[in-house]
Batch of 2 targets.
Target 1
Amino acid sequence: MGYKSAEDVLKEIRKAWPQIAGITYNRLDNNGIQWPCPSKEHPGTKYLFKNGFPVGNARFSVVRYSPFAEVFDDEYPFILSTGRQLFQSHTGTMTRKNPAIESIASQPYVKIHPDDAKKLNIYDGQMIKISSRRGCITIAAKISKRPMQGMAFVPFHYKEAAANILTNTKLDPVCKIPELKVCAVRIEISI
């Protein structure tokens, strides 16, 4: 890409997206400006959708709480949540081929709370085994206060520690989406 500055990138985006055609770097310097802003004369939009949604009002419905399909127990005492991390995308099929991204986010990990790590005698960077009723993976521990005690987090971007081997595919009875984000696991030191 032949961009010399972030301003050059903004200029190209303005050409491709008419809703921000009036947002320039100079206008951003003066307390910012919000889209839509279709021309340089337009003042920007202080409140998006202030006068209603373009396709009518949104419809809300009540969603009743239902417990996870799989709860923790003595055999699988932790709740695992999977998700994204900042630098990788989806299964990593493209981002894992990027040397710049791989230089800062090349290794899979499991985040576990310091209190849980202490109880299990796990140290930061140690290889540990996470098992569910469906399978197991070996992965490096990352001690962090981000997950609550009793929980663990694994990003799903890494084939060498594929988080979805562990997850539960039981379908939600209403929307028919698999419950891939929550499952019960056991964490132990890898041998």
Note: The beta strands are 78-83, 109-112, 127-131, 136-143, 151-155, 183-189.
Target 2
Amino acid sequence: MSLPDDVNTFLVEPQRPTVFVSNRPLRDVTADALEALHAANDPPTVFTRGDTLARVQTNEGTCRIVTLGEDHLRGHLTRAADFMRWGRNEARHASPPRDVVRDILAAAEWGFPRLRGLIRTPMVRTDGSLLTQEGFDAATGLFYAPPPGFQLPPIPGHPTALDVREAIALLSEPFADFPFGERSSRANALALALTPLMRSLITGSVPLAVVDAPQQGTGKTLLVDVASIIATGEEAAVTTLPRSDDEMRKRITAQLLGGQSIVLIDNVDGPLQSPALAAAITAHVWRDRILGHSREVIVPVDVTWAATGNNVRLIGDLLRRSYPVRLDAQTSEPWRRSGFRHPDLLGYLHENRPQLVAAALTLVRAWVHEGRPRPAIPALGSFQGWCDAVGGVLLVAGVDDFLLNLESMYAGADPDAASWTAFLETWRECFAEEAMTAAAVVRTLEGGDLRFEPLRSTLPDEVADAHPERRSRALGTALAQRQERRYGPDGLRVVRSGTERHAVRWIVLRG
């Protein structure tokens, strides 16, 4: 069989540089290897992420960020250059030496593009332009890897009022069948869907979306999957609440290294408390040691956080780092509901994802075009950038209930708040600003004076239920645990006011 005349066009590989490894200082071999790796990195496939080298790995439509270890880097090097070693009067091919690989990984600076994150859908850049070109975007540091077959419909450069109305109607459609407890929960659900699409426009951290309901089968996980499918084309990356906070820290590290857009802590059973999660939510970068290694990794935190559960009770710092999405089907068997507008919701999402993404980006562009107005909404801790950006988009879209259910979440998170507010108000009425020991208060209550009956009737359960001989200690302990904490609209607080015979004296102040 004869070969075509232009056979060499098909058989000749691109010319690679040669790196000689024999009888040369390690620094020189490393420099040549890095130079070859840089020359081959067009378009970029090797990146700096935190203090590691990384690449984007695609497998059967899924995508994740992979930290380059020694074997990964050797593979990149052998494809970037021909490594040669002198033998008997001739040069022979060699594999990239491991000491060179280790020297590269240990370098203080590599000079590769910095990878901020991985996205599966187009985004609006800070200047209002659209990121639609597949691959690495130097302006944002994001790698855009759309799912196979995804094509974005046209996005108006200057959306009209009609464009905005049509966009918010379409983006609201996947949420039509969810039984939101109130209008604010619906607005917060839209915020959850918008957040991953706006991450490059949000300055700082984003809070945790807590999707809860009175009982199972209400659609909590499905709601998070709606947001995730719109943003990534895939269901949310799921983890559960581990038994130890150390294990939680390891899971957070793994999710961040993988470049997940949305991280879901699913089916929280009992109180949600995790110092590691609370720290990650407000961190700009996350530091941790890789399991089985002594070195520390530093990775940017650009994820959208969500948690689901039944009547989730937030403990500690997570309360002020979260916002609620409450579902309530008002039935004992919510999983048996029928008559949905979209019976196959996941199928609807996958089929209409390009249009849903276009609707979200139209709203974002409308906000940018109108000068990025800021909404007048309740403050949420350290998340002003998120409140301004996501709340601003919802404001332009005519959704005006964003975050208005924060106060109800705070009130429900502390079931003792109401009883302690009543107790401290009565304390003020009985003692004004007189400093009292816990024992003196208990003696007053046990004296039978009717003037102190209101104080006796509002005594918190943890004190009232204590054995009479231990009631003074129970009250003293309860006061110590709540000192300087504000209660009620007047900001009532318990403060120390010296001692009396080694017993702490307490006073209740306003504000």
Note: Residues 1-12 have pLDDT under 50 and may be disordered.
